[in-house]
Amino acid sequence: SGLGFETMRVLALRGAHVLGTGRTMEKAASACDSVSGETTPLALELSDLQSVVDCAAEVGRLGTPLDMLICNAGINTFGDLELVDGIERMFFVNFLGHFVLVNRLLPVLRQSAPCRIVNVGSRSGYKRAPAEGIDFGNLRGEKTFDAEEAYGRSKLANALFSFELARRLEGTGITSNVIHPGLVKTNIARTAPALLQGAFNLLGGFIAKTPEQGAATQVYVATSPALEGVTGAYFEDCNPVIVNGDHHMYDKAMQAKLWSTAEAMAQSYLT
Questions:
Q1: How far apart are CA 235 and CA 253, in angstroms?
Q2: pLDDT tens readout for residues 5-32
Q3: How far is it, in rounded angstroms, from Cα 171 to Cα 247?
Q4: Count of Cβ atoms closer than 10 Å to residue 264 Cβ
Q5: Do residues 57 and 107 make contact, with C-beta atoms less than 8 angstroms apart?
Q6: Residues annotated as part of the active site
Q7: Which member of 133, 150, 185, 255 lies 3.0 to 4.6 Å from 204 by CB, making a disulfide possible if both were Cys?
Q8: Its pTM surpasses 0.90
Q9: What are phi and psi of 24, to 5 degrees?
């Protein structure tokens, strides 16, 4: 739904064969059937790493080249601490599930090169993350929980992962970039408190982008000939941006530590 659905609609309309994922096969098939063009539905539940592994395996069985991989899914719980397999839920779904998916698809991506990976991050990654960036001692809820900071942490993780991935894939023909779509009127606020959800539904049309506007940056970064070979960059509103100020997006030591931490968390699903 939301940005993912609009991205699939545009790419399929312009002639791409889109592998469209949904949390269930029924949801994926319904979305794929709703657009014009060639699509293949796949089940992908990012809070279940076995589902991630199964999805990647199915992509391999299809034998279809991957010219682009758009890591688009995202949640915001807005509430109290929730854990998935002992790990904070937003960090798990927004980052760890995508980390496993990309790593499991790397053999297909290497065979498909040149190709592009687009990670959907957020300004929250440099504006709302904890002061120390990734607070590695709090990923399982060991300390205090702040939903806004947790969302920012997950989006900072998307950026750190994208930059570390770009470094590791240098010279392979596979690029990795991260984007901020903007505040977009989608159903991401469906789990928000009633007052916040009502305000967003009422005012979102005035302060937020439409899904068409929001999806523009990820579609541009995934397809534009002008970005051939561009990797390790961050984009907002279809433009590369260098973010100044006090944040951790470009912290190479944190990028490497996040990668090793994610490997330890998901070890049995990576090999």
A1: 22
A2: 999 999 999 999 999 999 999 999 999 9
A3: 28
A4: 8
A5: no
A6: 151
A7: 185
A8: yes
A9: -135, 160
